[in-house]
Amino acid sequence: MQNVDDRLAGKRRSAAMREFKKYPNRRLYDLDASKYVTVDDVRQVILEGESIQVVDSRDEQDITRSVLLQILTEQEVGRNEPILTNRVIEQLIRLYGDAFGAVASRFLEQSLLSFLEYQSQYQSQMRRLQAANPFNAMMEAFERANRRQENDQ
C-alpha cells in the first residue's frame, strides 16, 4: 500500500500527466508505455502518485473523470472497506445544480488534502516515537549481540 507521503508527492507532481487513450473497443492505451492496459493498471498508476488524463480516441474528448469514477466505483464495491457512505453519496448528488456545489467541491478537495497532510504528519510522528522506544533499542542491541556471537562461532 502506498504511504501518504507518496500521495502528497503525487499532488505536487501533477504537472507531469500520464496520458491514456480509450478506444471504441473499450480498451485503454498507455501513450507513455506504448501498450494496452486495464483499468486496474490505471488505478495502479494513480496509487503510485501520478495524475492521469484519458481521452476518447474518436473525438479526443477528455473522459478522465468517467474513468476516475469507474475506478472509484470499483474500489467502493470491491474488496475494500467503502470510504463513501450512502449518506455522503446522497448529499453529493443533492449538491449538483445547487448554488453551493462549486464551493462544496473546493471545500471537499481542501478537506481531503488537509486530512492527508495530517495523516502524513501523524505517521511521521509515530515512526519517530517508535524509533525512540527503549524496547526497540534493547531489541536492536540483542540482535547485534546475537550476530556477534554467530560471527565468533
Commentary on this structure:
The chain has 153 residues and is α+β, with helices and mostly antiparallel strands. It has two domains: 1-83, no CATH class; 88-153, no CATH class. Helix content is 61%, strand content 12%. The protein is built from six helices and four strands. It has helices at residues 4-12, 39-47, 64-77, 86-95, 101-132, 134-152, and strands at 17-22, 28-30, 35-37, 51-56. The longest helix is centred in the C-terminal third of the chain and has 32 residues, at 101-132.
Amount of helix: 55-70%
What's the N-to-C terminus distance?
A: 40 Å
Q: Looking across the biggest beta sheet, what order are the strands in? A: 3-2-1-4
Uncertain regions: pLDDT < 50 for 5+ in a row? 1-14
Overall shape: extended
Structural class: alpha+beta
Q: So how many helices?
A: 6
The Cα radius of gyration reads: 22 Å
Assembly annotation: single chain
Instruction: Give the integer mean of the pLDDT values.
Output: 85
Keywords:
6 helices, 153 residues, alpha+beta, disordered N terminus, four-stranded mixed sheet, 12% strand, extended
Structure at a glance:
The protein is an alpha+beta fold and 153 residues long. The chain is 61% helix and 12% strand.
